[in-house]
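Hi all, posting the design record for the shared folder.

TITLE: backbone redesign
STEP: 1 of 1
STRUCTURE INPUT:
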């Protein structure tokens, strides 16, 4: 049984109020039904009224499942909270297995971090050490590269020459001191030298004997080699001779075969020429036959035309002759009849008249038939001419219509072609404009690139000049230190001073300041390639004075 909460009424379940019970006899059934429906429209007579305890029991039964789920969820949350508190409480305990494991992991983590810091420190120290090594290697390479330049090598050569000069002076001084010290010991030295000379001669003789023996052995070995080479040369010559004979035989066979092939080719050429000549002859004969046949056909055509013309003429003459014969026959008959009329008696006039009438009637009938046939022929000819004219007109109209259609098609084709040409011209113009703009862009880009390269080259030259100036300054400082040290130790510093003069290139010309201090070399214009000297005679100064003087005759080189 289901019911809603709004129909449950608490209070009296049965009976009526005292006011209503007193006057119950006067209540109408409609009023009783209205009272039983109540305010909400519910029939109060069909409503079951529950007590509060029963209602609570029903509500409790209905919400038992949700309360059970809430209880289980609360128990689970409580267990999880207890477990979390337990874990939080025991996580710092060191006497448990998990605590010991955690302690070991933490110690291992601290140890690894410490080792990693030590490795990082070692890597930093190693990187610094390697950087120092690289720096030292770069400095050493720069120094070696600097020492390999021409200026430094030339200066070091001059330094070596200075040391050689110093050593030579020392050797000369030592030789003089030896000569002064050994002035009284020349005889003993001469005897000792004589003994050494004799021992040297004996040793040279022994060496010469050993050399002669070695030479004899070498001669024997070389003789054996020569004999072996001669035998090998003879064998090679014999092989070459055999090979030459074989080549000669092969050459003869080749020449024979070549001649045979040439003979076959010549025979084939002759056969081909004969066949060609026969073909030309047959062609000429065929042309002659065809020409003769054409001439015969032309003659036949001419003969046929002449015969046709002649037949037409003969037909006309025959017609004229037949007409004349007919006319003569008519005249003759008329004359005969006239004579007969004259000779016969009057009783024959009727017969003659009937005969003439019959003759005239027959002739008239024949003439009518001929006229009728002629009319029919003329009519058929006219009809044929008319039909042919109509066909010709139809054909002409059809041809004109086709010509008009072809003209329209040609006009349309011309329009289409003109439109295509205009499109092509527009496309070509657009391509040309695009190409022109592309070329202009390329020119601008190239100009920008060239100007950039020129500026870069100028900057590069400027940096080179600065580097050359710095290099010259470093070299002069280094050379000054070396020259000072050598002069302090008593060396001849002239080669060093000459090698340390300003200017690159090592030439004898003047220094070009604008070219990085280059000192060029000037060579003579011949095959020797000798460099021109720097010294000049007094005539050079005279020429300079003459050029710088105000006398134009001297300046132009005239002499009077």
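Okay, here is what came back for every position:
SEQUENCE:
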């Amino acid at each position: 049984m289901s019911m809603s909460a709004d129909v449950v009424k608490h209070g009296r379940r049965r009976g009526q109020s005292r006011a209503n019970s007193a006057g119950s006899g006067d209540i109408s059934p409609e009023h009783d039904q209205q009272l039983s429906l109540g305010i909400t429209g519910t029939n109060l007579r069909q409503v079951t009224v529950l007590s509060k305890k029963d209602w609570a029991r029903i509500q409790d039964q209905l919400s038992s499942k949700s309360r059970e789920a809430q209880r289980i969820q609360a128990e689970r949350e409580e267990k999880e909270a207890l477990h979390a508190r337990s874990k939080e409480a025991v996580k710092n305990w060191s006497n448990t297995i998990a605590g010991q494991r955690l302690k070991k992991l933490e110690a291992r983590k601290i140890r690894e971090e410490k080792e990693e810091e030590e490795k990082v420190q070692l890597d930093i120290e190693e990187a610094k050490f390697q950087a120092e090594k690289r720096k030292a290697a770069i400095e050493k390479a720069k120094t070696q590269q600097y020492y390999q330049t021409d200026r430094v090598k030339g200066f070091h050569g001059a330094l070596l020459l200075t040391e050689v000069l110093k050593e030579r002076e020392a050797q000369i001084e030592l030789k003089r001191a030896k000569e002064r010290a050994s002035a009284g010991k020349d005889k003993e030295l001469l005897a000792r030298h004589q003994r050494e000379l004799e021992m040297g001669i004996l040793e040279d003789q022994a060496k010469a004997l050993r050399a002669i023996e070695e030479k004899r052995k070498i001669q024997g070995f070389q003789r054996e080699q020569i004999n072996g080479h001669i035998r090998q040369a003879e064998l090679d010559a014999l092989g070459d001779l055999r090979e030459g004979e074989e080549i000669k035989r092969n050459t003869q066979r080749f020449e024979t075969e070549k001649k045979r092939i040439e003979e076959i080719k010549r025979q084939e050429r002759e056969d081909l020429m004969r066949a060609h000549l026969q073909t030309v002859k047959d062609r000429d004969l065929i042309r002659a036959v065809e020409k003769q046949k054409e001439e015969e056909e032309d003659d036949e055509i001419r003969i046929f035309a002449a015969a046709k013309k002649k037949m037409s003429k003969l037909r006309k003459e025959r017609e004229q002759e037949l007409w004349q014969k007919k006319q003569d026959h008519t005249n003759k008959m008329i004359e005969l009849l006239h004579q007969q009329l004259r000779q016969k008696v009057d009783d024959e006039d009727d017969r003659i008249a009937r005969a003439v009438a019959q003759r005239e009637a027959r002739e008239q009938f024949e003439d009518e038939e001929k006229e009728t046939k002629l009319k029919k022929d003329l009519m058929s000819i006219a009809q044929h001419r008319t039909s042919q004219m109509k066909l010709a007109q139809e054909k002409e109209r059809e041809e004109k219509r086709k010509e008009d259609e072809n003209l329209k098609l040609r006009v349309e084709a011309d329009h289409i072609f003109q439109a295509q040409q205009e499109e092509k011209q527009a496309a070509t113009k657009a391509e040309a404009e695009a190409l022109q703009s592309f070329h202009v862009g390329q020119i601008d880009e190239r100009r920008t690139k060239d100007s950039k390269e020129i500026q870069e080259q100028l900057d590069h030259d400027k940096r080179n000049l600065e580097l050359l100036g710095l290099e010259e300054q470093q070299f002069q400082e280094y050379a000054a230190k070396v020259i000072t040290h050598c002069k302090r130790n008593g060396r001849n510093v002239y080669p060093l001073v000459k090698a340390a003069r300003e200017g690159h290139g090592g030439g004898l010309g003047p220094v070009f300041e604008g070219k990085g201090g280059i000192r060029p070399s000037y060579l003579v214009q011949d095959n020797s390639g000798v460099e021109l000297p720097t010294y000049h005679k007094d005539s050079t100064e005279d020429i300079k004075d003459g050029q710088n003087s105000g006398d134009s005759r001297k300046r132009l080189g005239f002499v009077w």
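COMMENT: Confidence is low (pLDDT under 50) at residues 1-13, 15-27.
Let me know if anyone wants the other runs.
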